[in-house]
Amino acid sequence: MALRKLRAVFGFAALTLLMAALCDVVLHGRLQLFSPQIFGVLLGVVLVYVLHSLIEQRRQNEFTDWQTAKLMASSARLENSLAAASAMNARLNQSEIRYKGLVDAQGDAIFRRAGDSTLTYANDAFFRLFGLNPQTAIGKAFAPELHPESRSAAFGSFAGLDRGHTRVRYDQHVRTAYGWRWLAWEDYALRDSLGRLVEVQSVGRDITERKALEEALTEARDKAEAASRAKSGFLATMSHEIRTPMNGVLGMARLLLETDLRPEQRTYAEAIKQSGETLLTLIGDILDFSKIESGNLSLEEETAEIRPLIEGVCELLGTRAHSKGIELVSVAAPDVPEAIRSDRMRLRQILINLVGNAVKFTEHGGVRLSVDVIAGERSFLRFCVMDTGIGVPENKRKEIFEEFVQADSSHGRKFEGTGLGLAISRRLVGAMGGEIGLEPAPQGGSIFWFTIPAIGALDPPDYASALAGKRVAVLSRNSVLRDGLVAQLQSAGATLTALTEEGLRSADVMLVDAGTDAETAPIAPPVPTIPAYLLLSQAARAAAAEVKAVGFAGYLIKPVRQATLVNWLSDQPPLYEAPPALPQSTKPIEAGCHVLLVEDNPINALLTKELLRRRGHTFVVVASGEAAIEAMEEGGFDLILSDVHMPGMGGIEATKEIRALEQRLGRARTPIIALTADVLETGRRACREAGMDGFLTKPVEPTQLDDMFAAFFPDRFPDHLASRAVGRSVA
């Protein structure tokens, strides 16, 4: 390149000289090679060349320096990149070593396989578990051997993952290097960018110990369920076996009390009856607790009328309370609904437990059963049982609802009992969705309360203005009775007068308490010119005949129902004098029913026959299910009373055969009532499923028997319906 430049310079110089010579010839007419002009031109050319060369050399040097700097910067960046790549490679190597260490150190077996089950990767735990060599196993198909009794799917199936699932889980019982083991597999799908299944990663965990524990738990559960079934069967058997002789004891005691007895004989018979009832209550508590413990407790959902329920409980326990000289009264707040959806019998059982306890532990004063509404997002009914008894010590208030716990558990305790009543009540309230508790009463004694949801509440009865403008005087020395009656009257709109001479004379009507003594004789009304009604205990009903003779307008039997009180004190005619007439049926009223009694126990059969005979019924008695079917082939029975447990064919099997017989012969359905000592719901359900129409629990109560006949044959027993409509509080 330099040579080319030199040649170009000399060529340019020669050309310049030639041009200078021509110019000299033209100008001077002669050629002078070394003239000053030519020399000056040559010198200028040389100077220009030298200057150009210097400039060019400087430019080249600068360019070389720039390139050198650029190359050095690129070299530095390359060195930095190489260093970063080296560091990243080191980190990747460390990460791979850690990952491999973690995977290999896992107790779980981890491996990957292709679509043909070819092994592509596995950790050390996998190779150890199945006793495989990594060098020879990778690249070959893998499938563990399943246990001969295994019901798991064959290994290697991609079912589920093929259908788009991300993972699937399953258990397998497989052969390993350590013998037969249970593995819990979890398969993950590995897909390409197009979503196609490329590989499957499987993680297997040894769950042999867990499976053994599950099998042990399953075996224990099966044994527990078998024991529970055996316990339920034992309860049913014990209920039947205990209640059957108790039916005879109580039934015969009742029949004996209906005969003419000397005073001491009546005392002995009453003692037998009371002892039998106490024993039956204890048996019922134990059976109820056993049912709850065995998980056989079931709640019914039915219409439960609140006021008749609490008033019925007070009537049931009224005699016991009056025999102790205490009063029992029920009060429902005006806004309490007429009825709710609940288990009526269980609710009644809770109330009987609480009120019965209050009566047992109260010696003076009385017991008040009240119910109020707790409004909120969900409405609740709050039942309170307040007594004036001995109270519960503070250190016993929390544990008194536990099983077999009593406030006084000493050997010298005054009050008997199993300590199960409150525990059963707590369980029942909890099952109903409520709470139960205990508080000390302000004036001494205790307040037991519980709440239940007011599901399906109906509107409360309209008593608010039934006694509006009526001025009533309540004369009673018992504050519990007086306050309860005042609450009933005020919720019906009545005005209470002062218990002074002036207040009594301003009253429109008076309520005069005769006390709790069974031998109470009617006394004269305080103000003869004002109508007065005498309040008598159930045991003093015999004195009712003399009520009008001494100047009273009528009488009421305590505990008094609010509806009865309102009817008596309003302008309605006295219900006890003229029961409301019922519509007459076109069907002629018969004296009684023709009953088929199926009972193998001679004592129970004798008792039931006597109950039927005294009520004007005719009957045929058979002692087995087979005999009952033979008797039904001839027909002519209005109703069947059948025992459930009998030798040979029992009542349930006989009922099924009788229903089939009626269908085959085209006969009308004959009501079949179970006479059962089985109080478990499972036994009752079996009776219903067999085709029975009702139950009478042994020992049979005469009133329950009357109610049953009246329910199935209302046209034949209108007087019974009328008396039930009037209510037990009315004489």
Describe the protein in words:
The protein has 5 domains: 2-102; 106-148 and 155-206, 2-Layer Sandwich (Beta-Lactamase), CATH 3.30.450.20; 298-460, 2-Layer Sandwich (Heat Shock Protein 90); 462-580, Response regulator (Rossmann fold), CATH 3.40.50; 594-726, Response regulator (Rossmann fold). It has 731 residues and is of the alpha/beta class. Helix content is 45%, strand content 18%. The model is unreliable at 407-417, 572-590 and 721-731 (pLDDT under 50).
Characteristics:
single chain, 731 residues, alpha/beta, Beta-Lactamase, Heat Shock Protein 90, 5 domains, five-stranded antiparallel β-sheet, five-stranded mixed β-sheet, 22 strands, 18% strand, elongated, disordered C terminus
What's the CATH superfamily of the largest domain, by name? Answer: Histidine kinase-like ATPase, C-terminal domain
**What gap, in angstroms, lies between the N and C termini?**
147 Å
Sheet with the most strands: spatial strand order? 2-1-5-4-3
Rg computed from alpha carbons, rounded to a whole number of angstroms = 53 Å
Q: What's the number of extended β-strand segments? A: 22
Task: Give the CATH level 1 class of the largest domain.
Answer: Alpha Beta
Please tell me the overall pLDDT: 79
Structural class: alpha/beta
The portion of residues assigned to helices is 40-55%
By CATH, the topology of the largest domain is Heat Shock Protein 90
